[in-house]
Each structure stands twice: as structure tokens, then as C-alpha cells.
Amino acid sequence: MKLLKELLSTSPTRAFLSIIMGFLVGAIFMMVSGDEVGEAFDQGGLGDALWAAVLTVADGYSALFRGSIFNNRADDVVAAIRPMTETLRLGAPLIAAGLGISLGFRVGLFNIGGNGQMIFGILWATWVSTRMELPIILHMVVALVVAILGAALWGALVGFLKAKTGAHEVILTIMLNYVSIYLFTWFIRSPNLLQQVEAGGTPKSDAPALTAQLPQLVPGVYSLHLGFLLAVAAAITYWWLMERSAVGYRFRMVGHNPNAARTAGISVERTYILAMAVSAAFLGVAGANQALGTQVPYTETVHSGIGFDGITVALLGGGNALGIFFAGLLFGAFKAGGPQMQVIGISPDVLGIVQGAIVLFIAAPPLVRAIFRLPVLANTPALDSLRARFSRKGVSE
Amino acid sequence: MKLELKGMTKKFGPVLANDKISLTVEPGQIHALLGENGAGKSTLMNLLYGLYRPDEGHILLDGKELSLAGPGDAMDAGIGMVHQHFMLVPVFTVAENVVLGNEPSTRIGSLDLEVARDRVREISARFGFDIDPDALIENLPVGIQQRVEIVKALAREAKILILDEPTAVLTPQETDDLMVIMRQLADEGTSIVFITHKLREVKAVADVVTVIRGGKVIDSVSPRTSIEKLASLMVGREVDLTVAKKPPKTGDVVLKVNDLVVVDDRQQKIIDGISLEVRAGEILCLAGVEGNGQTAFAETLLGLREVTAGGVSLGGRDITNASVREVLDSGVGFIPEDRKKDGVVGEFTLEENFMTDGSHEEPWTNGLTINFAEREKMSAELIKRFDIRTPSAATPAKKLSGGNQQKVVVARELTRPLKLLVAAQPTRGVDVGSIEFIHEQIVATRDRGIPVVIISTELDEVYGLADRIAVMYRGRIVRTVSPKTSREHMGQMMAGIVPAGVS
Predict the structure, then answer these.
(1) Which of A312, B102, B276, B458 is most buried by its number of CB atoms within 10 A?
(2) Does B334 touch chain A (CB under 8 A)?
(3) Preferred mutation among B324, B335, B377 to probe A, highest tally of A CBs within 10 A
(4) pTM of the predicted protein model
(5) Does domain B253-494 correspond to CATH entry 3.40.50.300?
């Protein structure tokens, strides 16, 4: 019983409850935004209106399901599971970005500059993928590495400025976002830099060279590409780094208590620089996903705000690799399913509200606790002993 | 005013912080509330001051029941509190601080500071406080700041004054002065609740002593009760307050500090020319009132502060301005003064806390990954050897009591290969049982031939541990004396005066 209570109040449960709450909030918006409910009320009164409301919500969320997981109206199996592959494809960069932002959180750094870091990575990856000629595979690997290093550099700059001048990383990252996006815009609008060679003035890049594109996993059938496996690799790397490695241990120590870390001989400044670089490196993976995972020319909007969405993914993911992985997939599903909702006449912006509401509930644990009457736990002896048992097997928290 | 607490009970989750506590404070009485840290004294006082709501129980003032929704109600009822950490605005004047929250105003609504000044002058004169109402708080010594707090309470016409560990920040002389003031207030009819864990002070000033342990009233006794008896009531068993140690077997000089000067952010000299030597196998205590450079000295030894002039050498090696990493790796064990801030990472498990110094090396890591199996083994060993009371090695450190957290720090620092141990306030906020244990461990370290530097503001601890005592005042060492020096002389030196007959 005690263990159950303790389990109930830990973050996975809270995340789950927050998601439910988010969907409920979204449902309310669906009811009030459509015409059906109002019409039903005029014609048949309250009972009909309620029924119409339920139907609207059911329609909306089943459209989301069809668009993001399984399309039961498709003609064959290949088409039926296409939505799921789209969810994976769209979730992949969110996962990578979420991992990066989350890493920052755990070192005590509020990295709002994910988007800027991503774009800086995209800039150099675009250069490699459209302006260089390299053999197949190698071209892609070089572009990928350049995206990661570019982003990491942009992140390290933040860490460096913070460490040397004491400037706050939130201000730095917000400002560097602007620098980065306008730098990239300038690059793809300048013919002698990255603008499409035959564009005739449209502010677009070239499409990445075939040799540099992330290859599709099932060529010609689904657009799901190697980016998803990169996201999986990123999640594993994140797990190893934060839970197993000595560097990650120091990251976490600085995040929890920089004073104690300094007293223990750790250079907090250097840790900030390194952590910002590593955090941004994950965003570089997200950037590569965007720049190399496409077959067509793109504008500066190629970032899709993923660096910002990464913040919500990180918050929902609760700091651990698995949580972030699923949080990224959830928001990927929203992206994949949005169009289907639009088809049946429900604004996909409802999903933005759901996403925002989920994070709001996550960020306000006392609220969720109050709604579900979860206990506040100062002590979790039963959980502790359970954790101890696991950590003996080498699975640390 | 007569204050009665009846059956006061307060729970925090499953923890019973106050369990049916009843006590009576007669008008003009100094009622000492004696108990260890965590015994429930502060909870009780917060209940009385309206900061917490009791789960059960009544507060009666002159027989009338009192219901407190917040500190405002308590103040209106005539209850004043002087917190351990002063609640003063440093950039405001004395007068402004005294009226803060209850500002007198003119008819057009502007602040009437003249009334405030008068009030301060009047109260000061009554008790011979000598406080300038226009002085800025930040320019006043700690002892005077405390008086401002008392004036603040009296200006609200407090008839019952709660003093929460008031002597923690005072010199022995300032403590004596405070005792005089307390007596004077009591003679005028103010009731005083005096919270402390210092037995000597209780004996000196209290009329009645109520001992609290584990959230319960253990006994109310006369202050004439012997110190040993009071201690055993407080702890619940017989305790040995003296530290058993043999005469030191000193060896070569290991730590050498030459004319050390350190400045702070504002370019003030916080260490102003300290020279000292510590030999293998001896304990040197740096005594002094808090804030006279001891903390800065410890931080400088560790490499946390930059040396402006002078130097430090350890075993013949110059470690002036070495990084913390280099200092630690050259064999300095460091027990920081503020364990919550610098000593442990509260969210980390005990296992993780044991390896904070060693995340770059064997046996904790192979440089790249953590050696989980080794860590588990060593942690179990440390927990056993240092008698750390914890549900498991995977418990976050913040869930342990202060004493056990401190043992985690002590275990970590003493089990590394050491050339020098620096311990700042090693037993602050630690229960008596753990104090005994930590003291034993420090003496054992000395007996292994390791030089030890202790920084302590507790004279009892200084006398108990030291082989030599260096008294610090304003960043300098006043004198280095033997522990046979009298408390009176020690007190004078702590105020910067060298008494006649001390060499």
C-alpha cells in the first residue's frame, strides 16, 4: 500500500495524469470551437448538445489516432500503418531536441537556445550537403558530424560567456537565437552563400545532395528515414552519459549543488561550457534530421520550432531518456495526426493547446496533486529500498 | 502576561514534530526551552508565533484562548520573536527597521520617521541600549543588530519575547551582555522564552528549564540541575561531554602559512596577514567569533579563494593558489562549515555523495564510467564504519538527519589518503551523539599522525579538541595559546584584546 502511494506520486504517474488532463482540456476546446454542439442545443436542448459534444470529441481524437498511429480506413496494411511511421519520423527530431534541453536542465542550465543551436548546425550541414561533393555515406556522415559540431559550438559559446562573464544563459540563448536565425536567413538569401543555384531569387536552399540525405528505412514506401535511428542512438547515449558516466555524474552534481561541486574540486565553469556544448550537440542531431531528412529545397523555417518544442518534450520526459523518448513520440504523433483532424473540420491547433496544457500540468505538480489527491511525500522508504535493490543490479535511477 | 501552552500537537506528514506539549511561562519569567536540533523547539515557537497552525492544542494568554492566523495576530497579542537569523533590512536604518510593517504615518499618508526615531530612543534609553536610530543596519555589529531586533519586538509592545538561539552569533562578552538585558526585561515583567541547546547559558540565566526531546516535554527542572543531568535529559542517555584524548605526539611541520593576505569582492582584507604552522599529529583550533576570517581562511586553504599575498605550503610543496582539485589530490581532507551548501548534494544518494571528491579516479570510476559494484561495496563499508543511520545506501542524503549527513561528509573526507584535515564547524547542528562520534574520529585522525586544523566558534569544542588554540579577530591571529587559557581571557582575545599575562 505504502509502495503504491509512493509510486503514485512519482513523476511517471504525474506525467501520465498530466497527459490525461491535457486531453481533457483539449476536449473542452473541441466542444466549444465546433458548430455542432451549438446547433444541437438549438434544436434539441441540453441533452442533444451534450451528446453532440461527446461525438465531436470522439471524432476529433479518433481522427488523431488515425492520423498518427493506425488508419483503420486504409485499403491495405502498408497504408494503415503509415501514420505510425510518420509519428516516428516527426517524433525523432523532437526526441533529440528534448534530450539536449533536458541535459541542460539536469546541469541547472535553462537552455532556451535550442532553436538557435539547431539552426547553426543546420547552416553548416546545409553547406556540406549542398555545396560539397563527397562519396555516398561519407557525405552524409560528414554532414551529420558538421551539424552536431556546429550546434555544439553555438552552445559552447553560451557556456563560455556564462562562465567568463556571469551572464545568464536564458538571456544569452534567447539573443543568440536571433543571431542564429538571421545568420541562416542571410545565408540562404545570398546566391554566393547557400541560396539555391537556380532559384532565381527565391530565398531557398538547394535540396541536399542525394549522397548526403538520410536514407529512407523502407525506400519508396514510407518517408521514415535514418533520423529515427539517430534519435534512438541519441537516447541511448543520453542514458549512458547521465546515468553511467563520470562526466554525467559531475554534470548532475553541478546541477544539484554547484557549491558542493566546487568544494569537491570540480570546475563549475568548465562543466557549464561542456554541458552547454553537449546539450547543443543533441540539438545538432535534431538539426541534421531537419536538413538532411528532406529531399526538397527548404527555407529558414526548416527548424519548425523544434528547439522550442524540445523544452516541452524535456519537461514532460522528466529528465530520463525513456521518458523523453515517449514524450517526443507523443508530440510527434500530434504533428502527424493534426492534418487528419483538419480533414474532419477540427482545428489542429487544439493539439497545441493539449501540448501546452500537458506541460502546464507537469510544471505545476501541486496542482496535479490537488486534483488527484496525491500525497506529498517527504519520505519514500519503500521506494528507496526498491531503488536500492535495482541499483544493486546496476540499474541506477 | 502569563502564557500557557496546552497539548500542542503538530504533524508534518507522518512525523510528529510536537506531541502534546504543555508548558506555562509566568510573567517576568525566563523560561529556557532546551533540546537538540530537531527536537521540536522551533516548531513549537512557530506555532506560538502563528507561522504554523497547530493540529491540536490551545494557547492561553492570561487565561484567554488565543487563535493565531499569522505572525500579525501574535504581534497584536503581545508576542514578539527574535529569530536566529535576523529579519532586518540591511540597507534600512534602525528606525526604519523598527517600524517596518507597522509604519507610523502623517495625516497625508507619508512615513513619519520622527515618531519611529523617538520610539527607538525611548526604548534604548530604558534599557541602556545605546542605539543610534539613524544608523544603517549593515554598519552595525551583530550584537547590536540583535538588540535592534529586541527593540523591534518591544516597540510592538511585546509582553512575551521568544529568543530563538540568540547566542549562536555572539561573542562571549556579547552573550554576557544579552544575559543582562534578558534579566532586565524579565524584571520589568516581560516573559521570555529562551530557545537554546547550550547548557551553560541555560544555567546562567533561566528561571525554569523545560527539556524537549523527540517532540515531547521530557521534564521541567530548575536551572540548578547539574550540566551532566541536563545533557542526559536532552539526549536521553548519559553523555560524556569531554573528549578523551592522549597528549599529542607531534612530528614535523606539515602545513605552513606565511603572511597570508586575502581580499574579498569589495577589496577588503578578510585575511590580514596570517602566519601559522601545524605539525603532524596535532590539532590546531582556530577560535573566534563567526565572521572574523576563519571561514575565508579555510576556503583559501582549499583553493576556493585567491591568495593576494603570502603563501601556503603542504609538506614542503607550495600550494598557494593551487586549484581545489590539486589541493584535494595533494591530500587535504575538508569538512566544510555549511554541510547543506558545500558538503553534501542533498538530492544525491549516499553512494553518490561518497564519491564527490573522486569522480575522476579509481576506485570510484575508471575515468569514464562509474564503478557501480565497487561503489556499492565501499559505500556499505563506510555506512557501517561511520555508523550512518540510513534506510539504505540509495537514500538521498537530504532525507537523513543533520548528524548523519555530517557523518557522510566525515566518512568521505577521512577515508581518503590524507596529509592534512581541515574541519570547519565539524559539529554544527549535529546531535550530541554524533558530536561525540565525530570528535572521536577527529582525534583518531590526529593520532594517525595527520595534522588537523579545526575552525570552531563553540568554545566547548575548541577546549575539547585543541592541542593549541589560535584566536582570530578581524582576519588576524590575536594570539596562539594553550587550551589551559581561561575562558575569560579567551573571550577577551575573541574581541581583539590581549589580556595581561597571556603570552
Answers:
(1) A312
(2) yes
(3) B324
(4) 0.80
(5) yes
